Fold:
Amino acid sequence: MTAILATGIYMLSKNRNDISNDARPVVKIGLVGPLSGNNAVMGQNCKHGVELALSKLSDSPIQYKLIPEDDQFIAARSTTAANKLIHSDKVSFIITCSATGGAAVAPITAANKTILMATISSATETATQSKYNFLHWPTPDVEGKKMVELLKSQGMKKAVIFQENHPGATAIADGLITQLDLGGLKHARFTFMGTERNFKDIVEKAHREKADVFVILALNPAAGILIKTFHEKNIKTPYTSIEFASFADDPSLFNDMKFVDINDGDMAVLNEFKKKHNSNNVYGVAFAYDTMIIIDKVLTNFYAENGRMPNSDEAADAILKLEHSGAVGRVEIDRQGLIKSKAVIKTMKNGIPVLVE
Structure:
């Protein structure tokens, strides 16, 4: 029998460390993401998005305590963080902020019947392997379809995909290839490890494919090195990306290129984030914000109807039944735990992504 959702929820009289001067239950939420390192923008934007949502929930009948953990974009550290959050901190929910973290944490939350809300990840298996795991992000099929639309609109018939061996990039590449096949477009795929720094051979092989476009699915610093290799070899093939342009070390490398990306979300939320954190990079902020709002909506609805907190099974069922329109627009929640939203086309102007459609 599933325990009440909190191992991390306490009535305030039971734990003086979690109490204020009211009688609301306290929910502990863990957050696992790269808060430092090459891809810290993912974790920091995710954390700030959740914190911004929490600042709006002061009137909720539930109090929330956020416990962030820095995994530095290393799967082993994601695993350690998840175990600490579940067994020591007694959290009820874990929010992950990358495909690396989500993939590493998912088996742990499943085994411990802890609700996982993964975001900033295209690795759908993070959600589909357990009823307790959810993924709030545009799925690879949605982004792949949008890329095929973009390529066909530009008269392109063959794409070469440069794909880093990483859960998110792999999922996006798989989804893109399926959609390229359905759309009748040719393709070739070149994969490499995230530690790769010499792309001369792979670029030369790719160039011999005589593709109309290169699709870059690589993280920092590999993406920047790859593009600089194009320039060094005087290769004029245009290049694009799905998502990765938005958090490149040097976004200006994608200037004037159209690419597929997530929907940034509600401008009021994003403007508040920009003002508070003095940043124009809003990648994933609205999804993290929306993830926290979904958690609160599920818990407050159940609490109002039942006068108690849900157990993990009840919380998972409630998420599946939820109808939600929030910071990223209306979403569809399917039976596999995928919280689906749309993909969009952007262009990079002076290093800043600008919506095209």
The radius of gyration is 21 Å. Residues 6-20 have pLDDT under 50 and may be disordered.
